[in-house]
Amino acid sequence: MKKTIGFIIILALMAFALFSLRNSFKEYRVTVKDGSIKTQILYKGLSNSVDFTKDNEGNYYIAFKDRIEYIDKSGRAYNIFVNKKLNITSLDYNNKILYYASGTNVYSYNLISKESKEIIKNIPNYGDYNNSLVRINGDYLFVTIGSATNSGVVGPDNKWLDNYPQNHDITPKSITIRGMDFGGMKTGAFVAYQTRNIKGQIITQHVIGNSSVIIYNLKTGAQGNFAWGIRNMMGIDFNSEGKVLVTVGGMEERGLRTVKGDSDYIYQIKKNSWYGFPDYSGGDPISSPKFRDSFNKTIPAILDNHPTINPPAPIYQHKSVGSLISLAIDRSGKLGDKDCIYFYEKNDNSIYSLNKNRALKEKANFEEGAYIPSMKFFDNLIILDSKNGYLISMEKDQYNNTNSGMHRFYYFLLTIVITLIVGILVGLRKKD
User: Fold this and answer.
1) Distance CA 170, CA 179 (A)
2) At what angle do helices 2-25 and 404-431 cross, to 10 degrees?
3) Where are any strands of DSSP class E within 297-370?
4) Which terminal CB of the chain, N or C, has fewer other CB atoms within 10 Å?
C-alpha cells in the first residue's frame, strides 16, 4: 500500500512538472493563421535589437543601438564591435562588409580588415522620423530619409524643438512656396518655428534632403537622390524585377497643419519621381475632400508649381494611419506566390501578405507586447521581435504553431501520466 501511495505521489509530481512546463510554453506564442506555414524560434535574448542580416554562410548579424552582434550557425555569439556613440537604426550585408545607418551617417564595416568608414554623411536626421533604413540591391545601397515634421510645418508637436530650434524639413530639390503661414500666421513651411513664408519664396535644394531615398554605388562611391516627397518610410525591399517597394506612414492629426483622413500606404518607388509630400498623400491632393484640418476645413497646399499634378498612386492603401511597419518581399515564392508582399501591422500585431492581385491575408498574429521592426527573406522569412528578443523563422509546413513539436511532446507525456494514474486507481479499486 505504501509503495502504491508513493507511486501516486511521484506521478502527481510528474503531472505538476508537466503543467509547469506547459506554462513555460506560454512565454512566447505565435498564432499562425495559414495552415501551410509554421514558425519556429531561431534565437532568443535579442531584446532591444533594431535590425538583422545574414551572410552567405548562414551566420547572422544582429544590430543593437550601440553594437553589432555575430551569431554563427552553431548559435555561438559575440560582439563584433561596441560603440556607445552610435545610434544604429538599420543594418545590411554585402560581400564581407556590413552597412549600417546611425544618426546622420551611414557606415561600412569590413569584416576581414575590421575597418570602419563613413560612406554617407550629413543626413538631416533631426526630426520626427529620423531612423534611416539601409537596404542593398545588387551594387547599390538604398537609404531612406524621413520627414522632419508631420506635414511640412514645425510646431509644438515636434518633441525635438527645444534641442533643435532651427530645424525644419530640408528639400533635396528646389521648391517654390505659396506663402501660407500657420499657427496664427507665425510659421511657414520648410522654415524654422515661428518663421514666416513669403509668397514666391524659393527653398533651395540640398544634396541630401528629408522625405527622400538616396542611392549609393557600392563600387564607385557615387551617390545621389533616387526619389523624393516620401513622408516616412518604415520598411523597404525589392521584388524579383528589382523594383523598390516601401511602407509609408500617412500624415497625422497633429501640429499646426493638422491632417485628418489620411492612412498608411505601400508604394513602388520609381527613380526621379516626386511622391507628393507635403501637398499630396496616397496620390490625392491635400485639398481634396478626403482630407480635413482640425476645424474640418479644406487644407491649403504649401507648394506652388508642384513638380507634377499626378504623383504616383500607392499599390495599397491601409485602413489606418501609423500602423504599417516592416516589409519583405518573397522574390522567389518561398512561402507562396512569387513577389508576394509581407508586412507587419503593429496595431493588429500581425503579419499580412499582399499578392499581385491585391488579395490581403493575415499570416500570423503575435502575442501582446511584440514589435517587429524588421523582417527579411533569406531561406525563409526571418522575423525580428525586438521587444521580446526573438528571431523567428516562418516557413512552409503543415503545422501552425511556433512550439508545435514541443506541445505534441508535452501532450504525449501528459497522456502517459494520466493513463498510469487511471490504471493504478483502477487496480487499487479492484483490491478493495
Assistant:
1) 17
2) 160
3) 303-304, 316-317, 324-330, 340-345, 350-354, 360-366
4) C
Rounded Cα gap, residues 19 and 207, in angstroms = 62
pLDDT in tens, 221-254: 999 999 999 999 999 999 999 999 999 999 999 9
8 Å CB contact between 80 and 111: yes
CB atoms within 10 A of CB 156: 11
Q: Which three cell numbers stand for residue 123?
A: 543626413
Round to whole Å and give the CA distance between 403 and 248.
Answer: 33
pLDDT tens digits for range 71-119: 998 899 999 999 999 999 999 999 999 999 999 999 999 999 999 999 9
Q: Which helix (H) or strand (E) holds 175?
A: strand 175-177
Q: In this structure, what C-alpha cell is assigned to residue 409?
A: 511532446
Amino acid at 158: N
Strand 51-54 to 77-82 pairing: unpaired
Q: Are 324 and 249 in contact (CB under 8 A)?
A: yes
Measured distance CA(49)–CA(260) in Å, rounded: 33
Q: Identify which of 396, 389, 406, 327 has the alpha carbon closest to the alpha carbon of residue 71.
A: 389
The 10 Å CB-count burial string (b at 16+, else e) for 15-45 is beebeeeeeeeeebebebbbeebbbbebbee
CA 252 to CA 231: how far, in whole Å? 11
Cα(304)–Cα(177) distance, integer angstroms: 5
What is the Cα–Cα distance from 37 to 68, expressed in whole angstroms? 30
Please check whether residue 213 is in contact with residue 232, taking contact to mean a CB–CB distance below 8 angstroms: no
How does 76-106 read in b/e, with b if 16+ C-beta sit within 10 Å? eeeeeeeeeebbbbbbbbbeebbbbbbbbbb
* Residue for grid cell 550629413: 122
Q: Report whether the peptide linkage leading into residue 289 is cis, meaning its omega lies within 30 degrees of zero.
A: no
Distance between CA 378 and CA 105 in Å, rounded? 27
Q: Could you write out the DSSP letters of every residue in 79-146?
A: EEEE-TT--EEEEEEETTEEEEEETTEEEEEETTT--EEEEE------SS-----EEEETTEEEEEE-
Nearest to 255 by CA among 146, 179, 130, 149: 149
The answer, yes or no, to whether residue 25 has pLDDT greater than 50, is no
What letter represents residue 39's amino acid? Answer: T
Question: What's the rounded Cα separation, in Å, for the pair 290 and 299?
Answer: 10
